[in-house]
Fold this sequence. Notes:
- 2 copies of one chain form a homodimer.
- Chain A has one domain (about 1-695).
- The first copy, chain A, has helices spanning about 1-30, 40-80, 90-120, 125-160, 165-210, 220-255, 265-285, 300-325, 330-355, 360-370, 375-385, 390-420, 425-445, 450-495, 505-545, 560-570, 575-595, 605-640, 650-690, 690-695, and one strand at about 500.
- Chain A is mostly helical.
- Chain A is globular.
- The interface between A and B is large, with 73 and 72 residues.
Amino acid sequence: MDFIIANANWVSLVVSVFGVVFALVLRSWILSQDSGNERMMKISGAVQKGAQAFLSREYRAVAIFVGVVAVLLLVLGLLPGSGMSPWTVLAFVSGAVASALAGYIGMNVAVRSNVRTAAAASRSLNQGLRVAFASGTVMGTMVVALALLGISILIFVLNSVIPDRAAAANALAGFGFGATSIAIFARVGGGIFTKAADVGADLVGKTEANIPEDDPRNPAVIADNVGDNVGDVAGMGSDLFESYASSIIAAIAIATLGQGVAADRIAAGAAFPLLVAAAGLLIGVGCTYLVRTEENATQENLLASLRRGVYTASALVVVAVVVLGLLLDLGLGVVIATIAGLAAGVAIGYSTEYFTSDTYRPTQELAESSTGGPAIIIIRGLALGMRSTVPPVAIVVVAVLIAAYAAGLYGVAMAAVGMLATLGITLATDAYGPVADNAGGIAEMAELEDTVRERTDALDSLGNTTAATGKGFAIGSAVMTALALTSAFVTATGMGTEVNILDPRLSTGLLIGAVLPFLFSAQTMLAVGKAAQQIVVEVRRQFREIPGLMEGKADPDYETCVAISTDSAIREMVAPAAIAVATPIVIALLAIIGRGGNVIGNFVGVETLIGVLLGSLISAFTLAVMMANSGGAWDNAKKYIERGNLGGKGSDAHKAAVVGDTVGDPFKDTSGPSLNILLKLLAIVSLVIAPLLATGA
Amino acid sequence: MDFIIANANWVSLVVSVFGVVFALVLRSWILSQDSGNERMMKISGAVQKGAQAFLSREYRAVAIFVGVVAVLLLVLGLLPGSGMSPWTVLAFVSGAVASALAGYIGMNVAVRSNVRTAAAASRSLNQGLRVAFASGTVMGTMVVALALLGISILIFVLNSVIPDRAAAANALAGFGFGATSIAIFARVGGGIFTKAADVGADLVGKTEANIPEDDPRNPAVIADNVGDNVGDVAGMGSDLFESYASSIIAAIAIATLGQGVAADRIAAGAAFPLLVAAAGLLIGVGCTYLVRTEENATQENLLASLRRGVYTASALVVVAVVVLGLLLDLGLGVVIATIAGLAAGVAIGYSTEYFTSDTYRPTQELAESSTGGPAIIIIRGLALGMRSTVPPVAIVVVAVLIAAYAAGLYGVAMAAVGMLATLGITLATDAYGPVADNAGGIAEMAELEDTVRERTDALDSLGNTTAATGKGFAIGSAVMTALALTSAFVTATGMGTEVNILDPRLSTGLLIGAVLPFLFSAQTMLAVGKAAQQIVVEVRRQFREIPGLMEGKADPDYETCVAISTDSAIREMVAPAAIAVATPIVIALLAIIGRGGNVIGNFVGVETLIGVLLGSLISAFTLAVMMANSGGAWDNAKKYIERGNLGGKGSDAHKAAVVGDTVGDPFKDTSGPSLNILLKLLAIVSLVIAPLLATGA
């Protein structure tokens, strides 16, 4: 099957082009749908304008960042003896552009699908589901297709301009770094934006002005709706784009370095991740057609229809992995490793659902504890989050041990690829959520009949479940990817893998790595508070200064609220982002300086950086799971009470649950997910600059 | 100076005997003080009885645990080829007995000093301070003296019965393990007891029955007072006893194995920690006489008087370290390493104070955020705790790098010894707190005049500051000790220190280690809630069933509340303790099984255990600091508001701050401090069973 191996890159290129075309066609179908009455279009138009404003502002900031880093990479690449290829910069810029494009298209279609979902839901539940899910599918497919397309093209280019295969593979890591640059803005900045708008809108609207949620008189309501898309479409998409791309790149790099693959199977090992990804893309696209439902579907029916799609895709990918593994003669070990990763992803999703869905005991017990007051529900929620770290860690431990036993370092990287092989459809179930949520908001604001709101509520509620599962999946895949990247980094430094475990540089590196996620989370949590405060000031100003606003006679100035959220989100993300980018670079520089045999070498070395990567990996993993699951459980405990349990809305239990939910908001939507970016960023930056550390080592 | 080296053990023996005698004399002096009027004696008598009941019950449970472990150790020691000495069991039992004895004497004198402090405070502030501080000094000196005495005697015995010095040093580790057995009961069980009683008393007393704090009609009030002593005297004492003993043992073990000391300086290296400890004991005792104050002293004066004692002791220990280091010809490096540890301890104390005292911005800002409601103060408090992890980690990183650069692994162990060299007086400032707190309670219950309560309040408030500093110090020293123990463990396995950093057993070990503190904290947090609930039920029962209780005509049944708290605390600590003890043992057993070249060896090895130790170290460190400092800051933010700031007692800000304080209680007094025990326990158990892993490796 040497033909397949030699042409794997062509296969992935063609498949990814198909994916892009499919997504664009689906987009046209969505845009051809009925977009409702004038009032609905007006509201949706405001959300579209807000999203556009956010993206323009964000991408301007990203462009500056990408430009500066690109120049630095170019300088490093041209520096004689740096060991880095100047072509890294091409990969870097491509990664940034591809991820930005996927995010742009996904957001663009999401904010146009919301109104069409509302209109479709006024006809039937299934039609509403199909429009909303189609929007998610555009995003999911676009992410996967553009990532694979970028990697495929780059492999052609890099292999033709860089003679050394290992150096070419290392330059390819620039693609992952470029994708991370987008992710840090979309996930961290976006996470701050979405919660600042949400909290800000609630603080003044519900608490001070006593107007309901999604009331068009609230000047921050559009920012809140934009925020849902920013967080769960662009943010989640960029996060998983990066994991997806980086896991493939790490697998190629490790295969090229000959770790865990036989000497005559290196080319096959480098081809395998591309082919698995291509197969996953095709399977995912096909399985989206399984997602449909009947009228009067219960919540279980709806969930079952989504799961039919995801599980069928998983099963088919297993088949594809077995067939491809045999065709490429990579041995059973590689197949087992890849499937272990896929199974781990599904299992982590289950675990997340168990801890955060109110159909299971943990969240029900949490809701019951709300009768003891706010302090008790906070303590119980934190304890729930802490306990919930055990299954995902256990799952990753088992998957890593199996994968490494079956196929060494290459196996670990392929486990990450396997986990993300069904990303197209997994992300579709995720990115569909905010569309349904927005559709409900539009139905409310446009005063559509109650059945519409009921249908969109059903779709929204389903979206909450998939969002929770998606968060667990995002963390798990980030950890697997970071582990693969770290392996690739250590291999690429050429220092050999034997280190002195009692080297103080390693243990202090671990300590530094462990503290970074805590610092990062503190910064992002405080950022939400600061940004929300600015929204509050602006909303109060509009209520005061715009005559007739409260009476519904005048329109509020939505744009200013969006602009304020955007500006403060981007300002507040600078400090945490700077810490994440600077840490590996500073340590690497000190390690290089210390290599000359001077005193610094006793305090800082490559061991320090390895310690930082491993320390941040384990610390961010546990902290991120805790934050995501505490937050998810508080959210659902509140909703559980709002459905009439334990005294229902307005009871003391409900008030306590609202406190829990408010604490949980930045936990689950800002700080927790931001940690995914932190741990991958540290690893990908290290991998990109690995040649600097390798020269003269 | 070979004479000193040869007789270092005699020196430490004589000095520690002096310490024991000094503490007993001081105890007699305290008991000779005026013990107040009949009513005061009655209340104090109830606390004494409660403390006695708690200790008897706890020590019965400990005895069973110690007995079982002793039998296991004996069997392992007698097993041919296990590599472990049967004498380990002697060291183990000695460690348990010595720590239990120190805790018993310390608690015994503390619950007798409270009433005498109240009586002395009715004469003058200085007299109150002197009695309370004398009680702390008895505890501090007893801990240090009994630890040093036990180690000194054991060295004589073990060196005479075990020919091999390295094996003798390893058997000595049993002493630390014995001390840990006490610590896990006193710190974890005690932590659950103290907060269950506190929360339980408040929930029914303040909230339901509307009676003030420290009201003698509340059946749980005595349990609450007992709890203060259980947590901050017995718990803190046993925690630091263990750190103190283990750091000395680790230094001796590492010196004996010749790590970081020249071949002809091994005996000197083993003598040095004993001599530094002995010098520290004498200096500490002397400096307690510097702690006195004037009448009408401000809070600053009081703090200054305590600091005069501690800082003078630190300065004198530095002199002693320099002199001893030169006399023993160990070189400047060892001296620098030891002083680096001492300085780190002081710096960590400062950092804790900065983040938790309301004289600094962080806690003031936290208090201000309470105006935004309970959710905001929770978010801000968690963020504060997360940020506060940075300085202690940075301090430990710097201290470890300096110590390792100056004197290798031996330097790291000596840094831990140096940090704990002033423990006698540091612990005195800590253990004094609950005495002052109890004295205030007695003054309240016995209706003494207002000036007495004002004076005891001043003393109590000072105790809160020292308690916060002490917590930081306890964590820092636990981390340094665990690091030294881990180094000793790796060295003792004889596997060599070179490991494959990408070995999946290492990375999965790190992951398992990282998740343990989260699981442990969740368990202990939930345990407090469950135990408090049982107190609530009992208090309600007494209010209902004892006629005349609410009118003050009948006495409540204090003993039952103490018994319930004790029983539930001991029951609830079983699960977390079992996890901590079982984890290293199970992994070690699997590693031994896997050594035969079978499949298990691919999944579990000594590398896994090393990973667990390092992973839990960094995870527990950051989590413990976060919990302790969040909790401390919430507590002080509440007190800041209660002093009339931001609306004072009863305002909405105060209500929000109370929520923060309630969340913080199990954080800072149960879960946070319990993590110290977890990380040391994992390391000491591993070190004790290291010979099993070494044989045939």
